[in-house]
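Q: What residues go here?
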């Protein structure tokens, strides 16, 4: 079962292009199954976004935010950012899209349940990263040791 809020905003640029940004946020409760048997319920986050540009009788849609052009990118003159499935856009279009995204994100907000699940996921990821850092530190010296002529963790006394 989904519990979401969807907000959409549009604007028309000076060149006549219509830019629409939609964001849907919420939670989704579903059954957890194992070999077809229901073993519990889980609640996950829903965070969908959609950018649509209508220009010159053509429609292009993407679920990705624009990324700024980097020095090594092979892009046409005047290209400022790139949107997956849409292509290169200029700085004015980029600024318009980012303004719309900020306005829609502020309006759609986050429910208390959404924030609690998001914080739990962040805490879980931080723990996983910390565990990996400990394992990396432990295995830092792992490998063939010329001192003891064996595989060790760099803690031999040879």
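A:
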């Amino acid at each position: 079962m989904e519990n979401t809020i969807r907000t959409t905003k549009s604007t028309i640029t000076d060149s006549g292009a219509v830019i629409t940004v939609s964001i849907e946020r919420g939670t989704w409760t579903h059954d957890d199954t194992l070999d077809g048997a229901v073993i519990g319920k889980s609640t996950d986050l829903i965070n969908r976004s959609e950018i649509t540009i209508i220009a010159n009788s053509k429609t292009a849609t993407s679920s990705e935010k624009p990324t700024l052009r980097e020095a090594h990118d092979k892009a046409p003159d005047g290209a400022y950012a790139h949107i997956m499935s849409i292509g290169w856009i200029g700085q004015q279009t980029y600024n318009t899209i980012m303004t719309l995204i900020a306005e829609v994100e502020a309006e759609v907000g986050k429910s208390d349940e959404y924030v609690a699940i998001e914080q739990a996921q962040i805490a879980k990821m931080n723990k996983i990263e910390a565990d990996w850092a400990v394992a990396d530190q432990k295995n830092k010296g792992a490998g063939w040791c010329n001192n003891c002529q064996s595989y060790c963790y760099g803690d031999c006394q040879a």
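A: Context that may help when evaluating the design: The longest strand covers residues 37-55. The radius of gyration is 24 Å.
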